[in-house]
Amino acid sequence: MRREYNFIENLEPKDVHYVAEKKMEHCVILVQRNWRRLKAQREYRKSRMLGMNRLNNDYDKTEEDLKRIKENKDLLERKRA
User: Fold this and answer.
1) Has residue 50 got a pLDDT over 60?
2) Which residues are CB-neighbours of 11 under 8 A, at least 6 positions away?
3) What are the tens digits of pLDDT across the range 24-45?
4) Rounded to 5, what percent of the chain is helix, strand, coil?
């Protein structure tokens, strides 16, 4: 904290404002990310309580799904080669 204070103390006022704005933008991003994570956890717990999570249900892949997966896999292998 002392090092940051000394750094800010030696800056021009407009530079201090710029640093404060950047810190605020960074904080907003962190808050939004955390909010989305908490919201997803809440929805997952709610669906799990209702027995609607994907772990309890077997979703079988159709022939079309398997064909599309195989085509995508082949395409990626060709791109890597």
Assistant:
1) yes
2) 19
3) 999 999 999 999 999 999 988 8
4) 80, 0, 20
